[in-house]
Amino acid sequence: MEDERETFLSKIPQVSGNLDNEGAELKSLRLCLKWVCLDQSNLWRASLSWSIFFLLAIGVPIGSHFALSCSTCDENHSRPYRLVVQFSLSIFATISFLCLSTWSNKHGLRKFLFLDKLSDASEKAQHGYTKQLQRSMKLLLIFLLPCFVSVCAYKIWWYVSGGTKLPYYVNIYISDTILCTLELCSWLYRTAIFFLVCILFRVSCYLQILRLEDFAQVFQKETEVGSILVEHFKIRRNLRIISHRFRAFIFFTLVLVTASQFTSLLDTVPSSANVNIFKAGELIVCSISLVTGLFICLRSATKITHKAQSLTSLAAKWHACATINPFDNTDGEIPRARITSSQVFSMNHYWESDDEEDGDDDLDNTKLVPIFTHTISFQKRQALVTYLENNKAGITVFGFMLDRTGLRSIFLIELALFLWLLKKTIDVS
């Protein structure tokens, strides 16, 4: 029986508006997904996908570790940190590939990136999200290319300067060329998959940021509280979906990056390690790549959580403006013409941001106009503020909110572990 679900690649977006015609960058996204072999629509393609994964993510690292072990090489070619590097890259590639395969079977690209719901967003949000999709592959190259160039330079130096001291088979030039190419392909494959998941998480969050910015505009006009709640329900639901999809990836990335960096610290801090750029060059590039991917995820999660929670402050400001409105105690209908420009200025003057104020809270800095409070009762406004205070939206990882407070907690835990491990390492050495 033919599977009715569309595959990850077959659901390339065909929505109205800005996405009707695929831009060059959206086609690049499709090519990138094909390159990492996510098309598992039939047995042949699924076998090819898993075969390439096992070859480049597992087979090549294990084979090169044993094939290139060199007990007679000099210190600069001994590569004492190779095991940490290969294991770290392979484990992250495995987690990323499993996540992508799971999403491939459960969702299509259109549903996964919320393109099926993009028609509900404003034209501004659609245009902004389209531009972000087109930038996604550029961002992937920006993060990936510098690390890949560094690895290429290191690998080429290692093979060229090693000469006949390095293990080779039959012909030294052909052997070194094949082994170097396989190692570079393996590194690029594993790192690209990891960065791709991080970029997909960032893109998924970006649409919700655009919707939050649109949502903030409802407080600048007469709006029913019910419609405000319905829109907030949609945003909270989308954030819960994103959190559920990526929570395992973010959790394992945080834990394993920490473990990888602490393992590297144990290997490099002792005075007997004799670390230099030739021995630890590959370890440095690997650490930069993993920490950069974690930074992308944490920054995206923290940014959207901060904006979502800023809505509470904005709603409280809106409620306060409405409560102190001089027309609040006036009976009957209030003609709009009676609101003078001086009254408009006085209300905005209380709440507008100072020129020297930090502009982090984009939503909270929204300027409010005088509100006709006879259209929205005090009780409804108070109920809305109370709801937002007790139903904070954001990205969560197994119930832990990834906001600025959570990020500080993670930093303090990491710092405490680092100092404790550093003390133990120094004592031992």
Automatic annotation (TrEMBL):
Is Cell wall biogenesis/degradation found in the keyword set?
no
Q: Does the keyword Ligase apply?
A: no
**Which Pfam families did the record assign?**
DUF3537 (PF12056)
Recite the UniProt keywords alphabetically.
Membrane, Transmembrane, Transmembrane helix
Superkingdom in the source lineage: Eukaryota
**Which PANTHER family does the record cross-reference, listed alphabetically?**
PROTEIN, PUTATIVE (DUF3537)-RELATED, RAS GUANINE NUCLEOTIDE EXCHANGE FACTOR K
Question: Which InterPro entries does the record associate with it?
Answer: DUF3537 (IPR021924)
The transmembrane residues are 43-63, 83-103, 139-160, 187-207, 246-265, 277-298, 405-422
What is the protein's name according to its record? Extracellular ligand-gated ion channel
